[in-house]
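Subject: Sanity check before I submit

Could someone independently write out the structure tokens for this chain? I want to compare against mine line by line before I put it in a report. The sequence has 301 residues.
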Amino acid sequence: MSSIKIETVVKQKNRMGECPTWEERENSLVYVDINSQKVCRWNSVTNEVQCVSVDARVGSVALRKCGGYVIALGRKFAFLNWEDQVVTDISEVEQDKPNNRFNDGKVDPRGSFYAGTMAEETAPGVRARQQGALYTLFPDCGVVKQLEKVDISNGLDWSLDHRTFFYIDSLAYAVQAFDYDMRTGMIDCCSCRPVYKLEKEEAMPDGMCIDIEGKLWVACIDGGRVIRIDPEAGKRIQTVKMPASRITSCCFGGKDYSEMYVTSAYDGLDSDALAKEPQAGEIFKITGLGVKGIPQNYFTG
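---
Independent answer below. Compare away.
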């Protein structure tokens, strides 16, 4: 693994960088800074970063087939027209839970957008438990709740044969799997089974993606690493240590999907920690992993 190289591609620091998504048609990486309430796009050709400010914390962004993006912000699903920076609300969930917000999200193999919620902290390290849920926004803009009693809805992806949904509820400190029905776009909530329980030094699981070999890559927030999991064996098979501790998510990209892009955060670090971590909040590119990823799905609504 000596050929692995980690470099910064976005030096503009993010308070809570999240949900990196490779947009092939723009040669760009789209991502969010949750706590700065921004959706951003880094162009890999020009090295330019553009950001659109929104009116709430934005947990996730995904590609829309007809152009622009679908986003989950506050407790709403919405469309973002990048050219005119207009946000159009689609639907609101959990109106009875004003302290909740959307977190990570991703488009499934059918073209629907999955995104989950979580309770905000009421004090450092203090949050109401099991207040979140996982939702699906279908292409007709109908919304269905897939899971409930979730703590921090986070990383998600689908197996290469589209039969399994992989999911992270961060406070479970584990990756879980569910049966997924490609015909309906629904998961079987009764089919939950463990895939991998994180070790102590790996800290808490956050974002996740899958590679072309069907292995999972999990970002470990406060663990300063990305780990590769074999979901069949339930074992970690690789660890890539990163130059920042608060590693939040990852995706594959580049012209042949052989590059991995990794987001990080500086929120949650005190002044001493920030002095030791000058790269906290940057976005990194890993090359030399020896495996490729697969293209992102597009929301078809």
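---
OP: Matches mine. For the report I'm noting this point. The first strand starts at residue 5 and ends at 10.
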